[in-house]
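$ run holo --ligand "flavin-adenine dinucleotide" --emit tokens
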Amino acid sequence: MAKTLTTILSLLFIWTTSNKPIHEPHFLESPIPWDRIDTAEYISSFPSTTTESDFALYILKDQKGEPLFFYSALTTPVCIDNICKPVDIEIYWDLVGQYIGLAIDPEKPLTKYDHEVWVEEDYEKLHALLQNKHSILNRKSLDNLYDLQANREDTIRFNGQEVDAITGATKKEIKAHIIDGALYSCYAVWQIAHGPVRDSIRSFIDSTFDQIQWLKFLYSENREYQYKGLQNLSDTALHDHAARIIEVLPQSKPVARTYALKKLPIPFWQNAAFVQGVYSNMGVYDVFSNTILINKLSIAEPIGLLETSKHISHLTKNQLTKYLSFIRPEMPHYEPIVGNLKDAFSTSNYRYKYLLESFMD
Amino acid sequence: MIRFLAFVYALTIPWLIQSQTSYLLEAEAFLDPGGWSVDPQFVQQMGSPYLMAHGMGRPVQDARTEFKVDQHGSYHVWVRTKDWAPGPWESPGRFIIYIDSIEHLVTPVPEWNWVYLDQYELAEGLVSISLRDVTGFNARCDAIYLSTDSVTPPIDYDALQVWRQAKHREPLAPEVEKTYDLVITGGGIAGCAAAIAAAEQGLEVALIHDRPVLGGNASSEIRVHTLGIYGKFERILRKIDTEHYPNGSAEAIRDQEKRDSNMHQYANLDIFLNWRAYDAVSKDSIIQYVDARHTSSGERIRFKSNLFLDSTGDGWIGYWAGAEYSYGRESVYKYGEKWPEWGELWSPEVGDNLVMGSSILWQTTLLDSATSFTEVPWAMDVARDHMATAGEWYWEFSRSDMHQIRDGEEIRDHLLRAIFGSFYNAKQDTSHSNYALEWVSYLLGKRESRRLMGDHIFTFNDVTELRKFKDSVVMEIREVDVHFQKQLDDEKQPDFLSTALFYKTSKYYIPYRSLYSRNIKNLFMAGRNFSCSHVGLGGPRVMRTTGQMGAAVGYAASLCKRFDVFPRAIYHSYLDQYMSLIEERQWLRP
Ligand SMILES: Cc1cc2nc3c(=O)[nH]c(=O)nc-3n(C[C@H](O)[C@H](O)[C@H](O)COP(=O)(O)OP(=O)(O)OC[C@H]3O[C@@H](n4cnc5c(N)ncnc54)[C@H](O)[C@@H]3O)c2cc1C
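-- output --
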């Protein structure tokens, strides 16, 4: 019943507000301007861990029907431990469900415990807090946080020493990121922005986005979108867009890069142009990715061995040891490889150059 | 008492065996180690316990020994040492060796190696040798070799072991043998709990532990507080657990005293402190014995038993005995341990060997006046611009090209560089002038390495589905937390910090079948090397939970003895007796 009512109210809200959110967001971490939003389509309602009723989730699109953001207006009071309070705030998520911004109705500013109205700095703090997906708020109960906040002025001392311990870290984080007198709102909004809504968004995109959309993601400049594209594109599509993968890898987060490098099937490693493209960027990759590349040398085109030799000083001891185990006089590119090893030995401050000594005769 | 005296006597003789023209002095057997610590953590990788000058930047007191030269001659001298932070700077591992009054600066080379010093004339009679620390930063010395022959001792691990044994004229097998009802290797909380439960049930128990104090990660040497619930074993676990002080706190010392005194209450429990197991041999899938060596004197004992418990954390006994084990992260498809919210960071699509990392905890103190901290150029490529005045659990290091056991020493050294470098950075800020390093552990606190496989492999699904088993012997309500290196999500972060992902749960259970090996018939396991998946380890690796595992094993072992069976039979044939025993024993007065 509550659900149906929310749905009807939410639909009504959207229709009466010319199909899109009316309050310009306070913050929106996106290169897409807010006024590109043309329509809001209701998708589903999502349960909240902190309210009795559900919230309506919308997808916002531009004039051409391109999805831009997900959006929800928290119009009903949020309740924790049977205490309910209105928290009028509108939240934006990007297309992979990450919190990116918020809007406030200027008529209904947020208020603190003592009814004082939030100031700009408070909103900034909230926005920063919401961007932290690993916030301590994820783990602590509200009670727990009240206790911590009550003592927040205590210096965290232990046997006369300041301790950067979990309790210390918690208090520090709380002090730094939670708005004085507004712990409740901060907690509730964080729980909503990072709660079941993310499942709703995930299941929506997984069930409605198609290969064309995933391809757009791969070609997007947003690295989270690129990652999602890599996760969802078929092997054939990935194969057809190998050149784009070479471009994307240096920009990716290590977790996405390692994901892609582990997953790409054997034909990629037998494609000399791809191997050369990917290995030529080892100097900018993270250590986890380079480990995968070194391990892949056993199946990769030999050009990979040559490219790696240009980045010797980026290798760790174990990576170098493994790399050197692949080097044989009879293999292609042997001479230029040894030339590069000699250069690394004689010109750099590389910590592990002692491992190269045997190539110096 | 007699045994104790014999032991003391053995310790007073340096572990030195001489042939006609050569002397091999093991540093860990020096008569007086001074301020140098005996480090046996990496024996399986580099061959021996060694002495290390862990002075946190202040040179430690000299280590000293004597030996008798039988024959006057001209001796070549080598020192086995390692430059633990190689690079374009003066090695922090430099130290001075005195042979009588002759002084020689030892400049170590990368990797464990024999550094040749010179040729010295030595007259017949007592010669004294001392090691003088120069930097206070972890110089290390494994052994000193003096020989009239100029042939360099072997470098390769296997050849070195054979050579060492020959030099020490050691027989192949230990000459001392001891037989027990249960032999436990590893005296962390799991091993201690097992020892108590089994001893209470009247078993003759040996507990072999490679440190001077019990408790593993919870000991005063590593200082992690114990988390988790007591389950059915509160009476036992309260004897050995800790208060909830911040990790790294000196309060751990008080809990250490409690643990030590409680552990020494049992006449039928022999505790072998400073003994490190180095081999376990099985025949027809039954372990026959475990061999262990004293970490300073080098003496050896062969421990025989019908039942063995591996609570080494690293699954050593199982590994040597041929037990099936896992290492690394399984593919998410293997057991279906998906958590969509965290995807690859939780359980990857393609498995790999990235595990939760190891840590070094550390503490600072605030002095009344300013104090300086020396430059540490060899630490800066690890610490970069990170500043810190204390550590916590998230000072953690794991990398996919490194193995938590094989590369343990490099992991430890990387963390030391992270600590010293970050503290140096903090000291450049005047607000930290009065901070001084108070305590930095040199022991690696480990979270995950080998996991021995049992009849049941405990996974995340046992938690999400809150599965109950008819052999549920361990229970827990604490969150499941799996760590990942921060750099994976944000490459700008230092490589030695981690983030934890927490999955909240109601009470979940671990069956007895996760506590014995599926292919080695007389092997139990308890602690973080129990039978589980990578994600499965996320919850139960905390030490009250691992303590529950240990206690459960102790009781199971008592029934194995009573009915003369191996561990699996307890599940199949004596489960009622087993579950009742656990039930009955929980309410006894301490
Ligand atoms: C920094 C850090 C923070 C953590 N935080 C917590 C926390 O807050 N609370 C919590 O409960 N848990 C925590 N954990 C996890 C927990 O400490 C580990 O999972 C713990 O190792 C489990 O105990 P254990 O008995 O299985 O192993 P261990 O504690 O490792 O004990 C095994 C012992 O066996 C000895 N040993 C190994 N090989 C041999 C051998 N061959 N011969 C003889 N002895 C041997 C080792 O020296 C070691 O002391 C933390 C871990 C770390 C590293």
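-- notes --
Chain B touches chain A through 53 residues (CB under 8 Å).
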